[in-house]
Specification:
heterodimer, A: mainly alpha, disordered N terminus, disordered C terminus, B: six-stranded mixed barrel, 33 strands, 13% strand
């Protein structure tokens, strides 16, 4: 028996952390969805043709993760069988959490359409062959047999359009998670207007970093050499967004960690949980240190930034940092007692309900989905077509101007420009 | 990157198969804990935070203790965890009008009319679940107050405190200190007969070496403490009255029969109220009920004036706020008395009635002793006493209703009055009227009766009132004489429906007792006692102790109860007159002037902490051996002698000294500032885990008996025998170890043992259930009800756990009735019983029910099953109160009348009028009077403390945020007001160049500048110029505010509790009575021993 009566608070009988490690993982995965979608869109919409090579891969990763993401919420809910009640009861539009299902569904539909157009040409191409793969390609092309250049241009236009909508949806999808947290007034630490922006930016950061790692893994799998155009472009975008993320984190810290600039409960909570308390290491060292400072420092070293492995370390740090951010926001935010008495403690179980095991399970499912989609969708053919026949009208001219003339040297220059110049 | 799936190598195939297979295994393992739930429904999942109406949420009705109001609470408990606290709909302090008592508990649970607790009450959950709660016994490891503790077992605690010995041999300096335990004092019962001081056996036995004192304990628990003290044989069981409101209590009691307290205005029917320092709607008890009733009455046209140093919530609805000079309330009241007498504005017919019989004939409910004659010849042996019939030559006194004076005195005095027609003396008991002015109107000249010079009580009152002119009174109060005239004129213009009420404001001064007497006298002058709209006593409580015939358990008596225990003189000298002491006799014998006494004595009783501590320090009149503190925190709460963490303050000097306090045991729910000095701290139950039987202040004029019962299982640990640790369990176990009667086996006259507190308190609940004095209106008459009905099966199920755990506590036939009262959180008369049934009371009741039970529109769409609509509630009141029948014509009196006791309202109190000041030897005044502020030796404070050096007076008040020491544990409250400030009025702020937020140092004549207390200024409006104040409740340095070490483990404090400011330590010590060892107490009222809180001059300096 404890001397002080704190067992009530620590044992969860009075207050407990309702949202556990699975809800930490949920915004992390949805962030990867949004981020990897942005990577694929960089190619489609923002003409980052160095990324053409991984755009289809990013789409597949994004789709697999999108389908896996709700599993975290289902696994967290005590009775997933009741999930259908979100639609059968009048939750929409009154419940912000239920509204989210609409956004998720819209996103799934968009992804299906985008996937169709992204792979239509390849499927049409493959449909002419023989065997089961050709049969599958015929099904996947939904009857389309038009392999003309014009059709490819039309596909590209549709893709630009869909990606543009997709980016908006990705922002809505992930920004909404930030909103859901930020709108909970009862949780002082969550209740900030910064929440949606923080979530989106860190989502993009984590998505780019994750794609970097997936790309390295995939080329390793096929025993190929990573394309430095791809890695450098990804790293450049990563650093750009990381800079924005660092700025937002700084704003967040200043407006919640300095007592003069914030409200009492926020100040008390941030101080007791993140600056001195149980999340101090996870916040100061992992989230800010490993997640932001270390990647910048590593990036400053040309030898690291120019090697795929070095870039991989940077990306890994970023991914770890973003996961820590989700962990700190979701669990740390719930540690501040609603009745202002002490901190609500929790331990993440390794196995069983709402455990590390279930998180691994969700990633396992996502991995299987990824394998399935990469088998189902001929992304490598799409890449080879995209790269090998880079004469797609309307895109080519534009991309050429950027691509062939300014390709790598420009990237190099961009990476080493002004800020970093003196340090090299 | 081209690839043909048909040309897969075996190696690649195996790799991919492994990847897919591995992925599937990992994914399958990972989803296994929850995937099954997708296909099967586990049942209804219930989140812990449930509303009261949700299945399995149990609602227990108990009584709040977040301040002294004792409002009824409803506790919603789910899975053993308290969810929410609300008001008990059955309880008249929480609900207006409260649910009829026969309402089923299930119906009350969904009561549609507001039944509320204030913010403090609702935050009580945080006191219960305070992370700093103590749950196991602690023993100090280092010196007292070192903050180093070890956890010990309950059994070790009992063994050590009972047996004593070398208990602290591990503490440096105490290696050889032998500590006497309970057994050493009790000595197998011999301690009860062996004198504690053989040279003065009148001081009582050796067992008086146990000094017990308590702070927040209430009825029921105090009776339990008293049972132990009696059985052990100590007279020293001291309440906190003197630092609470002793002058208000004694000012009321000694104006009445010596027992009745408090009185309150009948807010429903009063037309004018004059509140002196009551802080109503903020601090005055019961805060909610007063606020509710007063605002409703004000909206109906009630006028009221508040006389305060600082405007609180009460001023918002008042017609006038008078900012009085601290200590000047008595001057206003005496000025009014003078004006009223001189302008013949008093009710002379009423004041001339000399007995209850005469009053009955005149159709009034009470009488006074205004016309009684008092021996006024200073040389006469009966000087100061009422002229009794024998002295008047009327033969032996007659019995009857003419008794006056102190009802608790063995021989109540008999009065003599002069017949107005014959001018001859007549026994007050037989006279129908007595002369007020025997020697002419406004003449205070004595008259001779049987050769003895006498004055009437009324003459003596006028004599006292003329000590100062109206202008002098006004100057003392810091108001204009016109204001006094205005107030007196207004007060006497409302018949019986004007009331002067008072709280701590006028009381807590060195002149407070007489000020309270003066305010009581104002009420007597207009004869408002017991009238509807007048000053009323309320219905009191049930006979929970079982003293009445027919009660199932007489808990005041038990087998083998020691005879004549406790005996002797309390170490505080409370309840003993100096003139009957050995010291007095010895001095007289030696031919010395017996005055002054070494330390003051207080013949009128009351809990006397300040002098109790002084007595312990001085070993006067004897040495204390064991100090037992319960639910008290003097180190923080006591003014002047404590209040800050300063080792030079008297209390800390006392408590740190192991020679003066050889053994100090404290109960507490946290390690408070006082418990931190204990040798042993035993974990007590919070008010939400305890039993008590508090009543309600007569703001509620019906009979009301709250039952405070545990709403959750206590968080305290259990003893080896499985008993829950608590103060009661400690006393039971100590008593059993000593073999005291009334505990353990054969503890009750009716049979049965006392092994746990429930054995005792459930019997108390049975006494409440079987009380036969509760009344109801029946057919236009009042009828007694007898025992409560049996509980329904549903209500019985609410106490099933209790019945299962303590089946033998009451009998099988009593259980259903006990369940009935527990299911309702006590026993309460229905609303209408407050008044005798008549047309006026019925009309007012209809109005109140219609005012308070309103249709809100909600009832049209929100309706819980079994819920009564507002219309249902209104109808039930109308039907039950027979409001539909022609009203019977009873007088417009309250149902419960002070007058029924037959004791006069004391214009003159003989007990006071014949007692002497233990310092000067002068006689006290039997009537009200005004005294300038002074110290114990009689020196005027104005002469002692320079107004130039100390230009401001220090005051303090309560807010609606924190009420007592334990509230600091409630963040819901401290978030409303995280720290307190030194409040300075805008004019003073300008005078002294202070601004809100400035850090200032406050010091006083007895607190040096170096030790001055630092706090922040808040400039306020609505405060008397020349006064600074601070809200009560802050300035903690323990109770979870600082680090303590337990079993070598450091427990950090919560900085939110370590906040300023508390200026109690700046309050003035009375240096006229410093003992030879340098121990002084704060300023006291020498009549009563009541602490003067508001008479300290201070200096404020920016730092």
């Amino acid at each position: 028996m404890h001397l002080f009566a704190d067992m009530g608070l620590q044992g969860g009988s009075l207050e407990s952390v309702y949202w556990g490690i699975l809800i930490v993982t949920y915004p992390f995965i949805s962030g990867l969805v949004a981020g990897s979608f942005v990577v694929s869109s960089l190619s489609h919409v923002f003409h980052q043709h160095h990324l053409d090579e991984i755009a289809p891969l990013a789409l597949i990763v994004s789709f697999a993760l999108l389908l896996a993401a709700p599993l975290t919420v289902l696994a967290d809910s005590r009775q997933p069988v009741n999930a259908f009640e979100l639609f059968t009861r009048p939750h929409i539009p009154w419940s912000p959490l239920a509204d989210f299902t609409v956004i998720w569904l819209s996103y799934v539909i968009l992804m299906l359409i985008e996937t169709y157009f992204a792979f239509r040409y390849v499927n049409v191409d493959m449909a002419g062959g023989v065997g089961w793969r050709a049969k599958l390609a015929r099904v996947m092309s939904l009857g389309s047999r038009d392999a003309s250049e014009e059709s490819r241009r039309r596909d590209a236009k549709v893709l630009v359009f869909l990606s543009a909508i997709g980016i908006l949806l990705a922002f809505l999808f992930h920004g909404y998670i930030g909103f859901v947290f930020g709108a909970v007034k009862a949780r002082a630490i969550w209740s900030t207007a910064l929440m949606p922006v923080l979530f989106i930016v860190s989502a993009i950061v984590s998505g780019i970093a994750f794609m970097y790692l997936v790309y390295l893994a995939v080329v390793r799998f096929y025993r190929e050499k990573p394309d430095s155009n791809v890695t450098c472009t990804l790293l450049t975008w990563l650093m750009g967004f990381l800079l924005l993320d660092a700025y937002l984190d700084a704003v967040d810290l200043v407006t919640s960690g300095v007592s003069a600039y914030t409200q009492g409960p926020v100040d008390k909570g941030v101080s007791a949980i993140f600056l001195h308390g149980p999340h101090a290491f996870k916040y100061l060292v992992i989230q800010l240190g490993v997640g932001i400072v270390v990647p910048f420092l590593l990036f400053l070293v040309p030898r690291i930034r120019h090697t795929p492995f070095g870039g991989g370390v940077v990306a890994l740090c970023v991914v770890v940092g973003v996961y820590a951010m989700r962990y700190n926001v979701v669990l740390g935010g719930q540690m501040e007692s609603k009745i202002s008495q002490g901190l609500v403690n929790m331990t993440v179980p390794l196995t069983g309900f709402d455990s590390v095991q279930t998180v691994i399970g969700v990633f396992g499912v996502a991995f299987l989905l990824f394998l399935f989609f990469s088998w189902l969708l001929p992304w490598r053919q799409a890449v080879s077509i995209a790269i090998g026949t880079s004469d797609i009208p309307g895109q080519h001219d534009h991309s050429d101007a950027e691509d062939s003339t300014n390709s790598k040297p420009v990237d190099e220059e961009a990476l080493t420009a002004s800020t970093f110049e003196g340090k090299e | 990157m081209d690839e043909n799936p048909h040309t897969l190598t075996r190696r690649a195939f195996l790799g991919r198969a492994a990847m897919v297979g591995g992925g599937a295994v990992v994914a399958g393992w990972g989803v296994s804990p929850w995937a099954g739930d997708v296909f099967h429904r586990r049942g209804i999942f219930v989140y812990p935070d449930r509303p009261a109406t949700f299945t399995r949420v149990r609602t227990t009705y108990s009584v709040c203790k977040q301040c002294g109001s004792d409002c009824g609470l409803a506790a919603d408990v789910f899975s053993g965890v308290l969810q929410k606290l609300d008001g008990n709909p059955f309880h008249p302090a929480s609900t207006e009008p409260h649910a009829r008592y026969t309402t089923p508990a299930a119906t009350a649970k969904v009561w549609s009319n507001p039944h509320s607790l204030c913010n403090r009450g609702q935050a009580g959950r945080q006191t219960l679940y305070d992370p700093y709660r103590l749950t196991l016994p602690l023993k100090r490891r280092g010196k007292r107050g070192s903050g180093s503790w070890e956890v010990i077992s309950w059994e070790q605690l009992i063994k050590e405190v009972v047996s004593g010995g070398l208990l602290f041999s591990n503490v440096s300096g105490e290696e050889t200190r032998h500590v006497e335990g309970f057994a050493d004092l009790y000595d197998g019962g011999r301690g009860q007969t062996e004198p504690i001081d053989s040279s003065d056996p009148g001081l009582g036995p050796k067992t008086n070496g146990l000094v017990m004192y308590y702070g927040m304990a209430e009825n029921g628990q105090t009776d339990f403490l008293s049972r132990f003290a009696t059985s052990f044989g100590t007279v020293n069981l001291e309440a906190a009255d003197a630092i609470c409101d002793l002058n208000r209590m004694l000012g009321t009691m000694l104006s009445l029969d010596g027992m009745t307290d408090p009185m309150k205005p009948d807010l429903a029917n009063a037309s004018y109220l004059l509140y002196f320092g009551s802080n109503v709607m903020t601090g005055g008890f019961p805060m909610q009920a007063i606020g509710r009733k007063l605002v409703a009455a004000a909206s109906r046209g009630l006028k009221y004036t508040v006389v305060e140093v600082r405007a609180g919530n009460s001023s918002m609805h008042s017609d006038r706020t008078v900012y009085v000079n601290p200590g000047g309330d008595g001057a206003i009241a005496m000025g009014m008395v003078r004006w009223i007498i001189e302008h013949n504005a008093f009710d002379s017919d009423y004041l001339s009635l000399p007995s209850l019989q005469a009053a009955g004939t005149a159709n009034v409910p009470t009488f006074t002793n205004a016309s009684w004659l008092v021996v006024s010849d200073p040389k006469h042996p009966s000087y100061g006493s009422f002229l009794d019939p024998t002295l008047a030559g009327l033969g032996s006194p007659m019995g009857g209703s003419g008794t006056g004076g102190m009802g608790n005195q063995p021989s109540a005095p008999q009065g003599v009055v002069l017949d107005p027609k014959t001018h001859m003396p007549v026994s007050a008991a037989t006279a129908s009227v007595g002369e007020l002015w025997p020697t002419g109107v406004l003449s205070t000249k004595a008259t001779k009766v049987n050769g003895i010079a006498c004055q009437t009580s009324f003459q003596l009152l006028y004599d006292a009132a003329t000590a100062y002119s109206l202008e002098e009174y006004a100057a003392e109060a810091g108001v204009s004489s016109e204001l006094i005239t205005d107030l007196a004129r207004e007060f006497t213009s409302h018949g019986h429906t004007a009331v002067a009420d008072f709280g701590r404001g006028p009381a807590m001064h060195t002149n407070g007792f007489y000020a309270c007497r003066a305010i009581m006298t104002l009420n007597f002058l207009i004869g408002n006692i017991d009238w509807m709209g007048g000053y009323v006593v309320g219905g009191g409580t049930a006979d929970y102790i079982g003293a009445n015939t027919g009660a199932p358990y007489n808990l005041g008596a038990w087998p083998k109860q020691p005879n004549n225990q406790p005996t002797g003189v309390a170490i505080s000298r409370s309840g003993s007159a100096y003139e009957s002491s050995g010291e007095y006799a010895a001095k007289q014998k030696a031919g010395k002037n017996p005055y002054p006494a070494q330390r003051p004595w207080f013949p009128f009783g009351g809990g006397q902490w300040p002098e109790m501590f002084a007595g312990i320090y001085s070993g006067y009149p004897y040495q204390a051996k064991i100090l037992f503190q319960h639910a008290a925190n003097p180190s923080w709460s006591a003014p002047a002698i404590a209040g800050a963490n300063d080792p030079s303050l008297p209390w800390q000097r006392l408590i740190s000294d192991v020679t003066k306090v050889p053994l100090f045991i404290a109960t507490d729910i946290v390690l408070s500032e006082s418990a931190s000095y204990a040798d042993y701290v035993l974990p007590d139950t919070s008010y939400l885990e305890s039993w008590e039987f508090p009543g309600v202040w007569p703001v509620v004029p019906t009979k009301a008996q709250g039952i405070r019962q545990p709403v959750v299982e206590p968080l305290t640990g259990r003893t080896a025998s499985g008993k829950q640790m608590s103060i009661e369990q400690f006393l039971i176990d100590v008593a059993k170890a000593l073999g005291l009667s009334g505990f353990g086996q054969n503890a009750f006259s009716e049979g049965g043992s006392l092994d746990t507190r429930e054995d005792y308190y459930l019997k108390m609940a049975a006494n409440v259930a079987y009380d036969s004095t509760f009344q109801a209106w029946k057919g236009g008459k009042l009828a007694t009800l007898g025992p409560v009905p049996d509980a329904s099966a549903a209500e019985l199920s609410l106490i099933s756990q209790l019945k299962k755990a303590y089946p033998q506590a009451v009998t099988a036939t009593q259980w259903p009735k006990v369940a009935y009262v527990l299911a309702r959180g006590g026993r309460f008369e229905d609303y209408e019983v407050a008044y005798l049934p008549n047309s006026a009371s019925q009309e007012r009741l209809i109005q109140i029910v219609n005012d308070f039970v309103m249709d809100t529109g909600v009832e049209r769409w929100a309706h819980v099953q079994g819920q009564l609509t507002p219309a249902d509630i209104r109808n039930s009141f109308a039907a039950a109160a027979h409001l539909q029948y022609p009203p019977p014509s009873n007088p417009q009196w309250m149902t419960y009348q002070y007058g029924q006791g037959g004791v006069a309202c004391q214009i003159y109190n003989q007990a006071v009028g014949t007692a002497r000041n233990p310092v000067s030897g002068a006689m006290f005044s039997g009537t009200a009077r005004y005294e300038k502020l002074h110290d114990l030796a009689g020196n005027l404070l104005d002469d002692l403390d320079s107004k130039t050096k100390f230009p401001l007076l220090l005051s303090t008040h309560k807010t609606t945020v924190l009420s007592h020491s334990q509230s600091i544990a409630d963040p819901w409250l401290t978030e409303l007001m995280p720290e307190s400030f030194i409040e300075v009025c805008a004019i003073d702020a300008a005078r002294f160049g202070l601004h809100s937020g400035d850090q200032v140092r406050v010091w006083s004549p007895t607190l040096s500048r170096e030790k001055g207390i630092i706090g922040r200024v808040r400039v306020v409006n609505g405060q008397r110029v020349g006064v600074i104040g601070f809200p009560h409740g802050y300035g903690h340095w323990q109770a979870g505010a600082s680090v303590v070490t337990i079993d070598g483990r450091s427990q950090p404090g919560d900085p939110a509790r370590l906040v300023p400011v508390r200026l109690n330590a700046a309050m003035r010590l009375d240096d006229s009575l410093v003992g030879s060892e340098g121990y002084a107490v704060g300023l006291l009222d020498v009549v009563t021993g009541c602490q003067a809180y508001f008479d300290t001059r201070v200096r404020v300096e920016k730092v």
